[in-house]
Design goal:
single chain, alpha+beta, Beta-Lactamase, 2 domains, two-stranded antiparallel sheet
């Protein structure tokens, strides 16, 4: 299995050469994500998956990226809040960090959980997929979430992950 390794680096035009890059660096620091799996330093995130990971990490909207095994590669802060996730979600399977509950019974881990949009689209590898999900947040509150997912493909057309936007269902 290919492992995606990312790090933040300064852009070539950044004048601050003696300071190590940090995740909470001010915008003028000109940091970007580099995919080290290409074995060369790229001027920008160099694979579709790496670009989506970087985009989601900086997003204000609730969204996430999964790998082909449904492990979380990136999750926006607002998605973590909406889905009731706590710390330590990156690298873990989505169904291990999000408590999907049955719409009718309220019981955890319904038999259809593996077909929710973020995971189901990994199996089809084509098109878009939407689903409603009932989630039990870490404080015990249940919320209904609309999930819209799409597969992420590499240059050969192989599905290398999924990208999902979430929206709370109100009413």
């Amino acid at each position: 299995m290919t492992k995606l390794v990312l790090r933040l680096e300064r852009l070539d035009d950044d004048d601050a050469t003696d300071v190590a890059p940090e995740c909470d660096a001010p915008p003028e620091r000109a940091l970007h994500v580099v995919d080290l799996g290409d074995h060369e330093r790229a001027p920008v995130a160099s694979t579709p998956l790496a670009r989506w990971i970087a985009t989601v990490a900086a997003a204000h909207d609730p969204c996430l990226v999964l790998d082909p095994e449904a492990q979380v590669l990136s999750m926006s802060v607002s998605a973590a809040e909406l889905l009731g996730c706590t710390e330590g979600v990156i690298g873990r399977r989505l169904l291990d960090v999000v408590d999907v509950i049955d719409f009718d019974t309220g019981r955890p881990s319904p038999d259809y959980a593996h077909r929710i949009a973020p995971i189901g689209v990994l199996n089809t590898g084509t098109g878009l997929m939407r689903s409603l999900m009932r989630i039990r947040q870490s404080d015990g509150v249940s919320v209904t979430v609309d999930a819209a997912a799409a597969p992420i493909h590499d240059a050969t057309g192989t599905t290398v992950g999924s990208f999902t936007f979430f929206a709370p269902v109100r009413g």
